Task: inverse folding
């Protein structure tokens, strides 16, 4: 009889451990999916930003064609940012490219300040407004992404979930960060 009890206890422990592993695995999967979703929200807003930039450059070009170096820098930074892989595994590289693009946009908008006719142009004002709204949405999407990455990493690195993460190769996720302090600021947009 005692062998039967021991067998039932061992089977019961096995079932409890099995359900625990399944539960921890599912927690990690949900958090990984949250990270992917957070990244896709950033990607949507970055795509919107990329689509706005050529229109903004063309509008400025009509008024400030001799600012060729600045215009080319913006287009070059945009193309480099577009070229970086748009998946969460490349968040650090994407952050660097986006920081360079933000700086180039800041220089472009500073150039625009020197041209009163450009600043008064309705399409330029509308593009500035759309860019400002998009920059805000990108900021919120970055914050959300970094929040879900933090929760994922916390689960992945804490005991005992770390055992399940190691067994099933749950990979580390990088935060979406901007390296250079000057790049952290959104482009300044003025409606004077």
Result:
């Amino acid at each position: 009889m005692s062998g039967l009890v021991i067998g039932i206890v061992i089977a019961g422990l096995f079932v409890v451990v099995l359900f625990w592993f399944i539960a921890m695995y599912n927690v990690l999967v949900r958090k990984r999916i949250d990270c992917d979703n957070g990244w896709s929200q950033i990607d949507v807003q970055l795509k919107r930003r990329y689509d706005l930039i050529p229109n903004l450059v063309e509008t400025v070009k009509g008024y400030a064609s001799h600012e060729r170096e600045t215009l080319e820098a913006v287009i070059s930074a945009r193309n480099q940012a577009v070229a970086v892989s748009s998946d969460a595994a490349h968040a650090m590289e994407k952050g660097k490219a986006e920081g360079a693009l933000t700086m180039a946009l800041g220089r472009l908008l500073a150039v625009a300040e020197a041209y009163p006719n450009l600043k008064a142009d309705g399409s330029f004002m509308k593009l500035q407004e759309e860019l400002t709204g998009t920059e805000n949405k990108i900021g919120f999407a970055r914050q959300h992404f970094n929040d879900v990455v933090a929760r994922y990493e916390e689960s992945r690195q804490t005991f005992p979930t770390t055992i399940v993460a190691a067994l099933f190769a749950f990979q580390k996720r990088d935060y979406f960060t901007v390296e250079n302090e000057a790049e952290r600021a959104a482009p300044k947009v003025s409606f004077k």
User: Anything to note?
Assistant: The mean pLDDT is 87. The CA atoms of residues 54 and 79 lie 10 Å apart. Residues 2-63 form the longest helix (62 residues).
